[in-house]
Amino acid sequence: MGRILPKEDLLVRMQRDLRKANTKDPTKVQWAMVIDIAKCVGCHACTIGCVAENKLPPGVVYRPVLEEEIGTYPHVRRRFLPRPCMHCMNPPCVKVCPVKATYKTVQGVTVVNYKRCIGCRYCLVACPYAARTSDFGEWYTGKTPDVPGKIVGRQAAAKGYEDKPAVEYGKTWPDRGHGSPVGNARKCHFCLHRLAVGMLPMCVTTCIGRATFFGDRNDPEALISEQLASPRSFRLKEELGTLPSVVYLK
Known about the structure:
This protein is α+β, with helices and mostly antiparallel strands. The chain has helices at 10-22, 45-54, 92-96, 122-126, 154-158, 192-195, 202-206, 223-228, and strands spanning 31-36, 65-72, 75-82, 102-104, 110-112, 132-134, 185-187, 212-216, 233-234, 246-249. It has a single domain, classed as Alpha-Beta Plaits (2-Layer Sandwich). It contains eight helices and ten strands.
């Protein structure tokens, strides 16, 4: 058994690669993600971790897990495909934004400037991966009543989660109902606020099967570079020429 198990947890190595990347000139770093669908068990831990990390409201999901039934009876099985934003190197969403609220950082991450976004949702239509959603200001506890004299109610249920301000992009956004990001287009941003303090994206750390890899693809010694070089690698909708930074392993 000792010969089968890796010498160290893959998260430890990716964390070390991340620390190395954060010491480099930011313009020399290009973030990328690899998802091994042969390892994904469809547990949705990445989805829930992302929702909790970014305080996502109803209808806003950055990392859904798509399910597909493959094979022919009686040899049938389920296949799972986590689908974050692809962070395309040639992103259609950037081209259609009329106010330049969507743009790419020097490290290759496609982001949204909430203060500039006008909520036109052109980018939602342009994205061929359906990786964007619009925040309409809804609450999970919106229909939960508050009854006088009772301990539980909407306010108590929302306390500690929905009433907490989001910290996306390293900024503290106001609590829900008081401006951005309500009314804006929202999407996966590789947890830039976590990367800035040396932490891996939440979806990477919560993946129980270590099916998600992340790092600087410009570092030939990084684990992410090994995964990108795999003959099992493929990109979604490569024929569109979007050049996704999220790569899958068959």
